[in-house]
Amino acid sequence: MRRYKFEKDFDTQLKRIVKTPAEIKLIKKSAAITSSCVKIIERGLKRKNVTEKQLAGMIDKNIKRQKAGLAFPTIVTCGRRAVYIHAKPTNKRIQGLGYADFGAKYKGYCTDMTVPFVKGDIGKDERQILDATLSVYKRLVKSARAGSLCWKMQDEFEKLLAARSYKVRHSVGHGLGRDIHELPSLTKIRHRKTKDKRRQRRLNAWKNRVWPGMKRLKFQPGMVFTIEPGIYVRGIGGCRLENDFLMTKHGAKQLTHSKLLIIQQTV
Question: The pTM is what?
Fold first, then answer.
């Protein structure tokens, strides 16, 4: 279970949950830098025998070239390794279904995006994972509206995956700002029990300290957050599509521009 800053200081994070116009301007610039990597990824995937590490390096170089830092270590993974949600890039040659997860940090403000890709041919099972991820993503984006409870999106995500016989492996989204994970969290409480006493204490703390406040949170204009459904099946692989959004009174406005990349030929 990853520890986010809002677990330790919920009240402070709550004060930052609605961004100011100045903050939104910086986040939009950060989002533009992050989105500019889509063309870099597409160009890199067209290279013959390009590896996960090489593609990650191209992404990092493009972000830094625009006077921004990395919001977190860049993830690039493909094939069966794509089942690992936070996989580190390796020297594996990119082939099949995969994704790149990365983000810029511009003047202190973070963005976060995941670009799914297909290089070459994929099998029937991989195609089903890909199609389901894209379909679920579209449904979730349409459901985001001001006034609705934030955690309800996770509830919908779980129902959509259950209908397709897939398991949920992570939260459907989280807030963004000065930290890569801020409020609003789009997840919900887990009434779990574990034999690990340390882990159980953390789960209990989440339940008793954080959840009472989180369950009341509703989408408000000025909130910035991700929507990032992913599907992962051991022995086959995984897929994730993620973009950042600004909530407005008219609905969620997309800030980053991730999309599925399909590469058939290499140079």
Answer: 0.90
What are the pLDDT digits (tens) for 202-229?
777 767 766 666 778 999 999 999 999 9
153-169 pLDDT tens trace = 999 999 999 999 999 99
Amino acid at 11: D
Domains delineated in the chain? 5-263 (3.90.230.10)
Preceding amide of 212 cis, omega within 30: no
Q: Are 230 and 219 in contact (CB under 8 A)?
A: no
* Beta strand pairing call for 261-263 and 113-119: parallel
Q: In sequence order, which residues have a C-beta less than 8 Å from that of residue 131 and are 6 or more positions away?
A: none
Say if CB 264 and CB 208 are below 8 A apart: no
Q: Closest Cα partner for 93 from 78, 114, 113?
A: 78
Token pair 């995006």 in the structure block, residue? 113
Whether the CB-CB separation of 55 and 44 falls below 8 Å is answered with: yes
